Amino acid sequence: MKLNAVYFTPEDWICFRESTVFQSGGNAKTGLPKIETFLGAIKTALIKKAGENPLNLSSELKEIVGDSENPGSLRIWGPFIFNQENSEIRHYFPSPNGIYQVEEGGEFKLMMPHCCVETEIDGKTLKLPWIPSSVEGIETFDGSLIEMNEVSNLQRKLPFSILQSKEISQKLYQVESKVGIALERERKNAEESMLYTLSYYRFKPGAGFFVFADEYTVKTISGLSNIFIGGKTRAVEVDVNTIETEIFNVSQSSKTALCLVTPSVFSNGSLPSDMKIAGCDIKSANIQRKIAVSGWDLAKSQPKPIKHYVAPGTVYYLEGTLDDMQCISSESQDFGYGKYFTVDWDYIGRD
Predict the structure, then answer these.
(1) What per-residue confidence (pLDDT) applies to 129?
(2) Of 89, 125, 241, 324, whose CB count within 10 A is highest?
(3) Which residues contact 23 (CB under 8 A, 6 or more apart)?
(4) pTM reported for the whole predicted model
């Protein structure tokens, strides 16, 4: 399939702010910037180009950019990481949770469900993803990245590689984080239980973020060469290209591992209440931590309410005939939530 990719190349660094509610026993860790940030930057650039007041938009422009209750007509999903070396562009996605290596320098493998060992997730009993080795100290490389061609190798059961955290900082970018205190608008006092994180992404030359976009969005933003994104009003160069890949084709296997590349939300938290995804039964899951997602309300000039989603990298092991669904999230599909690629799987631990 052919996909439109929109590339955001920074001059040196980009800063992103994430609002976080800190509660007893809560997890305040955040991941990559959210798609709402990129969508908001594109909308702001379109409004500025049109020379209109954000609080009093024309009906034509409002249909494109939407408002706090309506996402508008633009459709993008991501973000992901790219790196251009000479004329070649490499595209990186969140790697599936549960990739391991038995020995240093050996092949990477993806954990598979054990046929006889069970675990409980969100009150549901599922088969436990398992590493079939007695070697002690084996770690999984959660939070790593996998390049598009390596995803294809994983799907075809060929040797594949990933970028671990150390390699990401060496080849793509480094992140520096700072914590701030949110203030109440009128009183300028610290808002109860509210802090925010500023994450500075310092990219290597030729590296940056990219998103996928539909034809309408590509046509609409074609006149934008630069936009300002994130905090501190940093400019990024915008380019559009078409890439061809088969990694998002749906597997026809009766056992399909669905690997999230964008956040998702389900009615029962990390799992659907009926324990089905795309018409298939969930037999096992390797679930990443939940992430806090907020956005910026252009009209009200304030952060949107925080929601919690299942993080990219989460893997659901399904059994049955998979429906050809582009998104599996029960919410925010207009923002590209619930995107995935699939890998065939089978139980381990059988005689």
Answers:
(1) 94
(2) 89
(3) 193
(4) 0.88
CA–CA separation, 277 vs 319, rounded Å? 10
Mapped to the 3 state alphabet, what secondary structure does 212-223 carry? EECHHHHHHCCC
What is the spatial distance between Cα 96 and Cα 144, in angstroms, rounded to a whole number?
Answer: 8
Report the distance separating Cα 50 and Cα 14, nearest Å: 25
Among candidate residues 323, 269, 327, 332, the one with its CA nearest the CA of residue 305? 332
Joined together, the tokens standing for residue 26 give 């809560």
pLDDT at 19: 54
CA-to-CA separations, 224 to 45, 76, 83, 153, 313, in angstroms, rounded: 8, 15, 21, 36, 32
Q: Residue 49 is inside which H or E element, if any? A: helix 35-50
Nearest Cα residue to 113 out of 339, 338, 319, 340: 319
Residue 113 token pair: 């469900």
Output phi, psi for 75, to 5 deg.
Answer: -130, 110
**Please, what sign has the CA dihedral across residues 276, 279, 283, 284?**
negative
For the segment 240-291, what is each residue's pLDDT rounded down to a tens digit? 999 999 999 988 899 999 999 999 988 777 888 889 999 999 999 999 777 7
From residue 90, alpha-carbon distances to 32, 171, 187, 226, 242 in Å are 18, 12, 48, 22, 13
